[in-house]
Amino acid sequence: MQPSDEVKLLREQVRRFIQNEVEPRSRWIEENDAIPEELVRMARELGLFGLTIPEEYGGVGLDLAGKCAIEEEFGKTNYGFATFIGNHTGIATAGIVASGSEAQKRKYLPRMASGEWIGCFALTEPQAGSDPAALRTMAVRKGDRYVLNGEKIYITNAGVAQVFTVMAVTDRAKGIKGISAFIVERDFPGLKVGRNELKMGMHGVTTAPVAFNDCEVPAENLLGPEGMGYVQALKTLTYGRVIIAARCVGMMDKLIARCVDYMKVRTQGGRPIAEYQGLQWMLADMAVARDASRLLVGRAIETLSRGERGTLEASAAKLFATEALAKVVDDAVQIHGGMGYMREAGIETVYRDARITRIYEGTSEIQRNIIARELLKDD
């Protein structure tokens, strides 16, 4: 699927922004585990916070194909910054765009598109990571509001978010059909964000627990019909998985380019290591893994763009691309030798960042379960 001229132009703008503004600040982000405010301001001016929000609400209005094209570029720079933007324009806004009432869209989307309000998606709990059906956070209707009690963990962007899309149980007896989605604002009484977690990688973006203690949410902040939260979450995660796979393609692009440059200048035994067949084969396998990942992302995009479920295709893309990235970054370290283990080369940073891609928004094991279930189900 070829991107439109508008997407090509935006992609080029993002590429220049990454090269000129993000990359020079990448080491600072990594070492300080924070994103400079001037970088956030420039991202706002470029419209990056509104990538997937419809134009009528102040956004850019990219479809999934356009979003994935931009995510490839984000994959070539600081992963924390990429996640900060990607989470906000992905799973954090997708539910409001897809299921929000007109009043909800008018209230939240313009301020989210401008970057004034940052969003996050609160699903994971201490006992409900890979099993969303095991949610314990409860939402009880009391007059014109719902009262939420429970805890979420590992919530990306929670430290800076104003808008939380929260999954909670409204009817325990109905199982997954008793889960509902809510739009919760940071200053609603009873919502408390915990400390920013220290992570192996993905430095710069905040990840924190969120507690709800008799948190009162207006009834009009119910997102979609009551009992449809699980369905909404699965649809949101399906799209999110394709987006993560696309970002992995960009990360592999970056690693391959660095390996090519290094192999041409690094000498061993009196000649460039690019002349050694063993390293050539490693480079070839890296390129094949990247290209196969890109093709699986394209298949998932086309399937979802036709209005089909795309569950298998999205899981296949995420599974393959994240597992492929793990091998590609490991080979990149090996090609660089001792230098690859040093922070100076920047490869070890990608090595640490890449590890999360096989865990969040559905582990590799969960993706295999989904693929097998789709293959075995009766038509």
Characteristics:
alpha+beta, Butyryl-Coa Dehydrogenase, subunit A, domain 1, 12 helices, four-stranded antiparallel β-sheet, four-stranded mixed β-sheet, 379 residues, Butyryl-CoA Dehydrogenase, subunit A, domain 3
Textual characterization of the structure:
The protein is α+β, with helices and mostly antiparallel strands. The chain has three domains: 5-113, Acyl-CoA dehydrogenase/oxidase, N-terminal domain (Butyryl-Coa Dehydrogenase, subunit A, domain 1, Orthogonal Bundle); 119-226, Butyryl-CoA Dehydrogenase, subunit A, domain 2 (Beta Barrel), CATH 2.40.110.10; 231-376, Butyryl-CoA Dehydrogenase, subunit A, domain 3 (Up-down Bundle), CATH 1.20.140. The chain has twelve helices and ten strands. The chain has helices at residues 5-32, 37-46, 64-74, 79-89, 91-99, 102-113, 229-265, 277-305, 311-336, 338-341, 347-354, 364-376, and strands at residues 119-122, 138-142, 145-156, 163-169, 179-185, 191-193, 207-218, 222-223, 267-268, 271-272. The strands form three sheets. It has a four-stranded mixed sheet with strand order 1-4-5-8. The protein has a four-stranded antiparallel sheet with strand order 2-3-7-6, covered by helices on one side. Strand 2 and strand 3 (145-156) form a beta hairpin. Helix 4 (79-89) packs parallel to helix 5 (91-99), helix 8 (277-305) packs antiparallel against helix 9 and helix 9 packs antiparallel against helix 11. The longest helix has 37 residues, at 229-265. The protein is globular and about 80 Å long.
